[in-house]
Structures are given as structure tokens and as C-alpha cells.
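S1.2 Input.
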Amino acid sequence: MIYLYLAQDRIESHTDKDFAENVLKLGKPLATITEQEWSENDGLARMIDGVLVLGKTDAEIADYIYAVVETTQKEKIELLSRSSL
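S1.3 Output.
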């Protein structure tokens, strides 16, 4: 299990609940998720507008896809420019 704690300005993840609560004094976990869920969300957890968000937001995914498509288009144009020389 992965335990998620709110620590000042970030989310901290720990696999040892006793250590996080008693040694690090993080209090009770904000959420508990499986290692598979953690892995599927690229180990990313944040608080956005007071809500725990796992993984990338839809906007971040869209931005990433746009960047990949834009880069691919530029590479194609560059390759076409080279081949016409």
C-alpha cells in the first residue's frame, strides 16, 4: 500500500505508515492507494484546488499530446525540406 500525506505544500508518499506517522509526524494519511494505482499514475499526486489529484490532469495530457504532434509535424517538414535539396 502507498500512503499519501499532505505535508505543507506537497503530497508525500510512503509505504511505511508507522514511520510516516510516528517518526516523521505526518499525521493520518490523506489517502491510501495500491502500488498498482500509484504506478498507473506515474507516481504523481498533488492537491489542486483542495482536491487530491492522481496522475496528470486532462489539460496536462492534452498539452503533452499537442506538443508531441507539433514536434512530429516540425520533424516531417524538416525531413521534407532536406529531401527536396
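S1.4 Remarks. Strands lie at 2-7, 10-14, 31-33, 45-48, 51-54.
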